[in-house]
Amino acid sequence: MSGHEQRLRDALRNAPSAPDAPGFGARLSDRARRRRGVHRAGATAGLAVLCVAVVAGALALDPRGSTSPSIAGPTSGETQPSVEPSPSENLDCSRPPDAPADGSPVVPTGAVSARLCGGLVDNGGFNMVWPADTLRGELVDRLVDRLNRLEPYVEPDACTLVLSPPFDLVLEYPDGSKVWVQGDTSGTCANLAVQGGKVWAGADTVLRSTLALVEDQRAKPAPTTPIEPAQCPEKWNGVSYTADADAVVPGSPVGVTACRYLLDPPAPGTITQSADGVLATQAPVEDPSAVLRKIAEGSRSDPCGGIAYDLNRTQDVLLVRDAYGDLQVVSTTPCWANELTGAHRYPSQDLASAVAHLLG
Amino acid sequence: MAPREPDFAEWVDARRPTLWRSAWLLTGDDHRADDLVQTVLLKVWPRWTRIIATGDPEPYVRRVMYTTYLAWWRRRWTAELPTAEPPDRPDPASTPQAERVDLADAMASLPKGQRAVVVARFFDDLSVAETARQLNISQGTVKSQTARAVSALRHSSLLSDEHIRERS
């Protein structure tokens, strides 16, 4: 073993000791047992929901029957509102007042549009925003069906803090009314609340389903009109990307902006990754297709041998906006892989130089 | 069949301190270390009876920890983790606080794959072959990742000759 390896081995022994947690094993066992209980209860509840759905389906075939929702959505039959249907052209994200209800099913059937709302912060890096697409038609029915198969949520003793995003989901009905769903996908306490009322398990599956439906809706050909490049945020930590966006593919119609930030040096004694900074300059990229090709030509292996770079300097990035409005952030630093883009490559020196030249 | 819970609870209580230290070296943060250990143990609980039947459960649990750690951060920027405050650090016991800050900084400078290899090889004392099995990578990759990590850390304050002299 080399001297450096021995030093490293010695240094790792300086890892702090675990905090005391008497009875941790017993508590964890109890919690795991409860989770299993929830799953079994959920399966039973699912069967009950299925039975209800069969009955409801039979009623739906009967023109005298009703599928009235039990919470603040559209209603049918005797409680059908008299207003003319007026769903929004583009579903906005303004939140209706909370209207707690005991909600079963989770949300009313009959929604005509849906979208993810709300900004969020990805604790591991840049801010993340949801796709701005409004789901319509049969895709909304599939989403509502997914929601109405959720299981009741049972709060565990303690929550793990797996870093996963929260989301808001808004559903709109023919009369213009909305139902607001708040999801928290974080760790073992992931849950979903409807209109500030009853809480359900399965927020993570709802989020995945919604994003998949957005992709399904986008299966149609994308608009081919020129894409306006995005404006660079004033603050480095305000740079955002869109969840599950995949715009950085050669040939995609995109608008690209080069942004340069002056990063603050980390304060003495802080961990080296701390960084903030302000926008120094920005410039639209005249030929986005050439930039996309350069990104695709990046190296799959780390050219820097894993050596971290100095943050006390400027930072150039590219903001890529696609035809759907999705944003992606592209690194131009050779040691910094583009793991959040579709490229998954380390930027080439050629790309870094081209962007640096553009920004003067 | 439900696991024989006393065995699980006893094993967790006995091994949690060591697992937590490995988790801290992987994540560099007390809360994330807590989170990683809890998540891993909750994952293995349903299979405990089968795991314990194979003998020592620790290799299996550690493998789940490495793979969970790698999965958590697989889609994040590897080089930067903007934080307003440095991660919480425990009070120093027998070693200076500065030593742990250096350790966290140096480990944070490594890509996650190299960090996992370093923890497996030099903290958990696994052989190259065992590390390869745990991380589901080839032995050649373990060797190359180890060499890269040691090379990178050689340039960090943690292992620099100057740093060693300052500390001594």
Summarize the helices and strands and which ones pair or pack:
The complex is a heterodimer of chains A (360) and B (168).
Chain A: H1 3-12, H2 24-61, E1 113-117, E2 120-121, E3 127-129, E4 135-136, H3 138-147, E5 166-172, E6 178-184, E7 191-194, E8 199-200, H4 203-217, E9 240-242, E10 254-263, E11 277-284, H5 288-296, E12 314-322, E13 327-331, H6 349-358
Parallel strand pairs in A: 3-9
Antiparallel strand pairs in A: 1-4, 1-5, 2-3, 5-6, 6-7, 7-8, 10-11, 10-12, 12-13
Chain B: H1 5-27, H2 30-44, H3 48-53, H4 58-72, H5 97-108, H6 112-123, H7 128-135, H8 139-154, H9 161-167
Helix pairs in contact in B: 1-2, 1-4, 2-4, 6-7, 6-8, 7-8
Spell out the key features of this protein.
heterodimer; A: 6-stranded antiparallel sheet; 13 strands; 26% helix; 19% strand; B: 168 residues; mainly alpha; Rna Polymerase Sigma Factor, Chain: A; Arc Repressor Mutant, subunit A; 9 helices
